[in-house]
Request: fold
Amino acid sequence: MTSRPWWRTAVIYQVYVRSFADSDGDGVGDLEGVRSRLKYLADLGADAIWFTPWYPSPMADGGYDVADYRCIEPVFGTLEQAERLIAEAHELGLRTIVDVVPNHVSDRHPWFVEALATPPGSPERSRFWFRPGKGPDGEEMPTHWVSSFSGDTWTRTVNPDGTPGEWYLHLFTPQQPDLNWSNAQVRAEHEEILRFWFDRGVAGVRIDSAAMPVKDPALPEVPLHPGPGGHPFIDRDELHDIYRGWRAVADSYPDERILVGELWLEDTERFARYLRNDEMHTAFNFDFMSRPWEAKELRASIEATLAAHAPVGAPATWVLGNHDVTRVVTRYGRADSSFAFATKRFGTPSDRGLGTRRARAAALLVAALPGCLYLYQGDELGLPEVEDIPLEKLQDPMHFRSEGVDPGRDGCRVPLPWSVANASAGFSPDDARQAPWLPQPADWAELSVAVQQGDPKSTLSLYCAALQLRKTEPALTTDQFEWFPSTEGVLAFRRGGSFACVVNLGTESVPLLPGEVLLASGPLTDGSLPPDTAAWLRL
Ligand code: GLC
Reply:
């Protein structure tokens, strides 16, 4: 039997660079901060680190507005430091995945600056979506497409003589102009960017907003019920050819380099098309992440996920959180524990104790499912969403573009607590010049890595134990998966002959399967599994 490729069962830890660890005391995380914590990530049991964009950026959208793909944001460090980080991580068995953003660039990217400096119809403008406006004076925008960040998707330019000019498309903020993927230079440039990072030892790329780069050039309005492939800017069939090109670049390297797609698609069959064996290797499973903490819902998602992946032979992924969504502890402590961007509101009550118990049980559930596991920084500490950041400190454009209705995504991006050492809970050095870029709650140090490392019952200790067992249990590195018959509210499954996972999402304790308990997310009572608790067993 040949050994299985690493990425089919990997644990991939997401580092949101700005908030991971600050080495130089400016209140913002940086690459040297990450380098100083590599051992922590290796000891935790991560196989790879995915870095959210670390490129020079005006930070109109937390770095997803990239001004130069071949450099490092000066606040984060230098290219040389990135190279050293990739190499040192590799020595500790940690692969590196970088974030590539094909849909748009920053409005400070040289291409967009050149586009604005040249007249309508120029080759420089054809890398983007410049269009005259509608109506007699071109005052009306070319379409009424709504941004994922709410609001308009077109901004009007000003001609050199001060008169109103063409409009340009931006599916996100006006500082993120969309690229035109039917332009050959756009395509060639991104394949070069992949090579640039693969040549520096990067093991994979996470593809940002991967279903959005291609647009219908006729620019129709969005139909009320777009059929499969019928949406003017989401999941267009032409995307597959682009990713086949990317896969060819990845496959031109002797060791495996992987493509991971950020695909928010409801249609599981259309989703799986991106995972055919000459396209992406894996994609994030947002269906599972968005479901409420209910046995029926999660079971349905697990079944649909495994069924959708099977025909294309791709591994599933399991995700509880990332830098865009409400922290799992807070979500699962709410009356409605599902996730949707559209319904995020200030002041939604959440029971932290309940949410924490459920998030711990969920950790054992996802770590026992077949496929890769994504772990967002701080979820291993059971950090809650920070919901009382003073309004004047908020930075996320999602908040501002919703006219303040949506709290935005800052609450899951608060700098990590490492210790009780100083005022920033060890995020910054003792002699820091600046406070953390987002304020940390008063009790943050109690949740810190140092405190949790000393407590065998902590969420960090639970994650460490689970991720170690995941490596040593042979059944967990296979595709074998089989449900046990179970009562309502319970998820129970076997992996291979003798490993089982049981999760109680109901309201009453349930008897455990007979066997040796390897790990439990909370206290067990007389051989039974209390509500909101999970256990791993050797049968
Ligand atoms: C992705 C990123 C998100 C970003 C958006 C625009 O969804 O995860 O953080 O705002 O793309 O690039």
